[in-house]
Amino acid sequence: MTVAKAKPSKAAPRSSGRPTKEQAGRITDHIVEVARGLFLESSFEAISVDLIAATARISKQTFYARFASKEALYAAVIRKGTNDLLKPAVTDSNRDGPIEATLVKLGLELSKRALAPAAIALERLVMAEAHQFPELASAYHGTGLHVREQIAGIFTNAMRDGQIRSGDASFIAEQFVYAVADGPVRAMVLSGKIVKSEKELRERVTAAVRLFLDGCRDRPARHS
């Protein structure tokens, strides 16, 4: 694997004297952003603290004043990326109502989020280093569990209203997320075929929701 060459980024903000808390925060964010780009271009093992410092245009003293090690910086990269992508997927306004329309709207939102370049880059980074940082990989995976719990509430309400038959709401939510977002997104990313228009994405999500609901609704009794 070729080690990435240092490409000095925009210099971190500097000032005379001791930096303010705000300035220190900007420097920290700058280091995290530079490191994210380097890790994605190459690998965790191939990137050194020297390269990170040179690319960020900071001294190693500045680096170690903020991060105890390269491993600590990598953890900060993953945490920041995860936090940036965390948005409420389910709101009070889409917990009730016709289940198909609710799931299409939710599925479209989940798909758009999963296909965002930042989301794809973060997943690749986590997967590449999951063997070395299992706790971070587990925490990253755990962010999706919260979303599935919220979606399970939608299915619980739909069961209560008789829109779908009763079942394990948590399991159904897990399968729904895979059907409309995780599965298609991973397939498209691996194949390099990314849905480019919202119309095409909506059509795919709508088809997935209808197929999914066919398995959740009671079938009419057959008459001999």
From TrEMBL:
Residues 48-67 bind DNA. Residues 1-16 have a biased composition (Low complexity). Residues 25-85 form the HTH tetR-type domain. Residues 1-25 are annotated as: Disordered. Gene3D superfamilies: Homeodomain-like (1.10.10.60), Tetracycline Repressor, domain 2 (1.10.357.10). InterPro entries: Homeodomain-like_sf, HTH-type_TetR-like_transc_reg, HTH_TetR, Tet_transcr_reg_TetR-rel_C_sf, TetR_C_Proteobacteria. It holds the Pfam family TetR_C_7. Keywords: DNA-binding, Transcription, Transcription regulation. SUPFAM superfamilies: Homeodomain-like (SSF46689), Tetracyclin repressor-like, C-terminal domain (SSF48498). GO terms for molecular function: DNA-binding transcription factor activity; transcription cis-regulatory region binding. This is TetR family transcriptional regulator. It comes from Tardiphaga robiniae. The lineage of its organism: Bacteria, Pseudomonadati, Pseudomonadota, Alphaproteobacteria, Hyphomicrobiales.
